[in-house]
């Protein structure tokens, strides 16, 4: 009996691009084997494709060359398989059988006659890098085509250099055209990944929510009478310091808490931290703040992430809590600050900086160049032309008429220079009357300027360029977006009025 002693091939994930894998069969002289390779159909209408060892390609037609029949002429046999490109990914099965003569056995497998292994081809994932801001009205619209993307095989070590060449432009409107102020350079932690999930207090009662009914309407009055006793010694479960939420009938300011007892002889009466408009028979919900929160699921949520926002009815956030631990068995997270979350509130989490991003989604991005000592963002020079020659009193001459003011910020943050411009003492732009083609600014020092004088402004601009590089070392397992929070280092200008 002849022996096949081993079969070796790289079984790591295949890229979406076409690639070739070599294989080696170890055995005795005269041992016979047959090799067959085929894919796994994606659906009932998708046929099985067999590898043709003669053409080096896959085909739905099975022929004699779909089997590789070998009688070993030495102690090793070397071959190769070429896998086609497939953007959606695929799974390939490699089947090794002993020859038809039945005088060969496998001694490296539990089955003496056959051995099977599979190789997965994974679809490329897209990692997208984009700027984000809460001040959308202060910028011209951003096209998704301006985003930087990295499309490659996921969860595999790579080294792909990406270059940013972004221009962020101030909106050209009278309401928001007061320029952009570059306050510092962008750094690693200005990059973030965001995910969201929903509070599920009902899953294991991690948050104790106690309901009670108002007995008598109140108007801007902190004193409230409930239908049932509220404090523990009177048979209730509500505590001083509990947060109060209204589920209908009036309004309660978010952040309102139970301040204490109105009257010890009236166990149904309590005092809130603020006066509110509450209707008779309105339903109130009282929640004791806790740092242990149960969620619907924990997808892309890890320790170190920050809760940056909440949304939904009665959504209230205390501070900026950080996730300190995650319990996947119970779908709970522990926060650095206690919270009073109503059931069903949506939480927005941010993984800030490369280390947190890698922990959350597996994307390894080297932002080494993004630090305060590296110039990644630069304000473009802002120049304007004087529209009318200075006239009038000394006070009137503090107003300078321009052929357009967009890009100039008021509020004493912008300085001005130019031929004949006086800066004999502290002299910054105080206010701006906005216009695309006219408008004016008010300075601290009177000016004697001629029409047509060119002025240069420092401290605000109409556009800021962001230019730098980073290296993607690993793409995530699924398409993900990494954001650059431009609000951390760019401040929209103001009129100053």
Quick overview of this protein structure:
With 497 residues, this protein is mainly β.
List the helices and strands and how they pair.
Blueprint: E1 2-9, E2 19-27, E3 32-39, E4 50-52, E5 57-59, E6 68-71, E7 76-83, E8 90-98, E9 104-106, E10 114-121, E11 125-132, E12 148-152, E13 160-169, E14 180-182, E15 191-198, E16 209-213, E17 218-225, E18 243-251, E19 258-261, E20 269-287, E21 290-294, E22 306-311, E23 323-327, E24 332-339, E25 346-352, H1 354-361, E26 364-366, E27 377-379, E28 382-385, E29 399-401, E30 415-418, E31 431-433, E32 440-442, E33 454-458, E34 463-474, E35 480-485, E36 490-492
Mean of all residue-level pLDDT scores? 94
Measure the end-to-end span. Answer: 97 Å
**How many helices in DSSP terms?**
1
Low-confidence stretches: none
Reading side by side through the largest sheet, how are the strands ordered? 12-11-35-15-25-22
Dominant shape? flat
Tell how many strands the DSSP assignment holds.
36
Radius of gyration: 35 Å
Provide the β-strand percentage band: 35-45%
Please characterize this protein's 3D structure:
The strands form ten sheets. Strands 12-11-35-15-25-22 form a six-stranded mixed sheet. The mean pLDDT is 94. It is built from one helix and 36 strands. It has four domains: 120 residues, Sandwich (Immunoglobulin-like), CATH 2.60.40.10; 179 residues, no CATH class; 84 residues, no CATH class; 79 residues, Elongation Factor Tu (Ef-tu), domain 3, CATH 2.40.30. 2% of the residues lie in helices and 45% in strands. With 497 residues, it is an all-beta fold. A hairpin with a 4-residue loop joins strand 4 and strand 5.
């Amino acid at each position: 009996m002849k022996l096949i002693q081993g079969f070796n091939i790289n079984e790591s994930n295949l890229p979406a691009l076409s690639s070739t894998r070599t294989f080696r069969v170890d055995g005795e002289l005269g041992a016979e084997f047959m090799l067959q390779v085929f894919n796994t159909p994606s659906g009932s209408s998708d046929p099985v494709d067999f590898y043709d060892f003669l053409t080096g390609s896959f085909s739905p037609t099975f022929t004699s060359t779909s089997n590789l029949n070998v009688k070993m002429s030495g102690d090793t046999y070397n071959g190769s398989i070429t896998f086609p490109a497939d953007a959606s990914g695929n799974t390939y099965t490699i089947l090794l059988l002993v020859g038809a003569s039945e005088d060969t056995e496998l001694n490296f497998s539990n089955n003496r006659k056959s051995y099977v292994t599979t190789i997965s081809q994974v679809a490329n994932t897209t990692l997208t890098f984009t700027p984000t801001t809460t001040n959308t009205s202060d910028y011209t619209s951003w096209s998704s085509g301006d985003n930087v993307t990295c499309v490659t095989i996921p969860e595999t070590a790579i080294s792909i250099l990406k270059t940013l060449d972004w221009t962020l432009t101030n909106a050209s409107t009278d309401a928001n055209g007061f320029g952009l102020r570059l306050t510092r350079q962008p750094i690693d932690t200005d990059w973030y990944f965001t995910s969201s999930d929903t509070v599920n207090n009902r899953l294991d009662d991690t948050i104790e929510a106690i309901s009670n009914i108002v007995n008598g309407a109140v108007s801007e009055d902190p004193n409230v009478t409930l239908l049932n006793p509220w404090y523990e010694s009177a048979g209730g479960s509500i505590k001083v310091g509990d947060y109060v939420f209204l589920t209908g009938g009036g309004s309660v300011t978010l952040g309102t808490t139970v301040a204490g007892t109105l009257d010890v002889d009236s166990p149904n009466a309590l005092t809130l931290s603020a006066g509110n408009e509450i209707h008779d028979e309105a339903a109130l919900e009282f929640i004791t703040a806790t740092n242990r929160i149960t969620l619907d699921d924990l997808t892309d949520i890890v320790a170190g992430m920050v809760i940056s926002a909440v949304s939904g009815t009665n959504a209230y956030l205390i501070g900026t809590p950080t996730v300190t631990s995650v319990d996947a068995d119970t779908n709970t997270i522990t926060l650095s600050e206690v919270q009073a979350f109503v059931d069903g509130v949506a939480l927005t989490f941010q993984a800030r900086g490369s280390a947190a991003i890698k922990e959350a989604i597996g994307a390894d991005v080297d932002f080494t160049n993004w630090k305060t000592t590296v110039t990644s963002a630069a304000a473009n020079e802002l120049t304007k032309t004087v529209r009318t020659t200075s006239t009038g009193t000394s006070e009137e001459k503090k107003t300078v008429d321009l052929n357009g003011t967009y890009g100039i910020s008021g509020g004493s943050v912008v300085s001005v220079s130019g031929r004949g411009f006086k800066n004999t003492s502290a002299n910054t732009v105080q206010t701006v009357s906005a216009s695309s083609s006219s408008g004016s600014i008010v300075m601290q020092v009177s000016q004697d300027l001629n029409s047509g004088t060119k002025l240069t402004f420092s401290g605000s601009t109409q556009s800021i360029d962001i230019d730098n590089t980073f290296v993607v070392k690993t793409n995530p397992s699924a398409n993900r977006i990494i954001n650059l929070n431009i609000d951390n280092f760019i401040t929209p200008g103001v009129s100053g009025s």
